[in-house]
Amino acid sequence: MLFVGDDWAEDHHDVELQDATGRRLARARLPEGLAGVARLHELIATALPEHDDAASGELGDPGRVWVGIETDRGPWVQALVAAGYRVFPINPRQVARYRERHGNAGGKSDVGDAHALADMLRTDGHQLRAISGDSPLAAGVKVMARAHQTLIWERARHALRLRAGLREYFPAALEAFDELAATDALELLGKAPDPTSAARLTRPQIEAALRHAHRHGVKDKAVALQTALRTPGLTQPAAVVAAFAAVTRALVAVIAAVNTQVAVLERSLREAFDTHPEAEIYRSQPGLGPVLATRVLAEFGDDPERYADARARKNYAATSPITRQSGKKKTVAARFVHNDRLVDAVARQAQGALVVSPGARRYYDELRARGVGHFAALRQLANRLVGILHGCLKTGTRYDEQIAWHHRHRAAAA
């Protein structure tokens, strides 16, 4: 066995190679890119001359080489996986705690981190999870799903900035528009970003913006909008209003561009997801819409060996509770260290399932009747839905309401 600690940076990697006894065999700083990977292969081949062909640089069994690195993505990681090494993405917090086990002076360096990674892999490798073997299609869906969600988050941040600015000089606009990132709001604020110009907007202009946004009841809504925009209010000096109006135009342009790219990326995301062999299983789950299904697939991945059982999948989703027990004291609490994107997705699924799944609704109502709070009940429902998804993926079957909640139906009938 050979253990490699790889402390990565943007342009280089500090690596250390150890044997099974902890003896350091090599240490080097390698450049990022093809030349660095080639040099790493040479170091590994040289460190295992008794079993491998060091002259040719080829490894007889690359699976005997374990690599610890504080990331799970990027071309360097993919090159290590392609070489056949067992790659372990290790959380930086785990590495920090490991350093504290061997010294409390607080020192830290790239070389020291490479040593800690290799040593940690040698002593605690059986406790660590190797990188998942997701398909390239699932990896691509993950890239797009995360980017799509990030753009939505960025749009929300820009909308909040726009709202804060309007509150300073044009509060009537906040009364007129319920959703500032909507197409009609952006079009009208782009044309009239200040109270004076907004008051001059004609009824046909407002109706045209509402039609572009595919609104219903255009005429009535146009009257209400025009009335709201012409409502008198407190004002700022002309120079300040002009400055705020310029900021509003800029934010409106940014939000409109983000809206366009969100729609473009969503189309690409759906097209890629549609070609995945497990797409129909994900779509069949209650509460998973077209976009939410892609996010759940992206975060769970499609490696069939990644989750040993439903409990492992639930633990990764952070829907299952954790127990803290010491002596006579025992507490059960929610998991606070988790994948934020996956937690958000399964929580939204649970909310949607309450509407479309009678079994999910009945389960939630039973929890609430027992005094469980709303969010705790949703988390338990999400935990149940993750288990159902795991069973469907393992058996290759679509969701079936009767099978998923058969025990609940029997209990209700009794």
Automatic annotation (TrEMBL):
Which InterPro entries does the protein's record reference?
A: Transp_IS110-like_N (IPR002525), Transpos_IS110 (IPR047650), Transposase_20 (IPR003346)
Transposase IS116/IS110/IS902 C-terminal domain segment(s) = 281-364
UniProt source species: Actinomycetospora lemnae
**Lineage of the native species?**
Bacteria, Bacillati, Actinomycetota, Actinomycetes, Pseudonocardiales
Domain Transposase IS110-like N-terminal as annotated: residue spans: 4-171
What's the protein name?
IS110 family transposase
- The portions of this protein that span the membrane are none
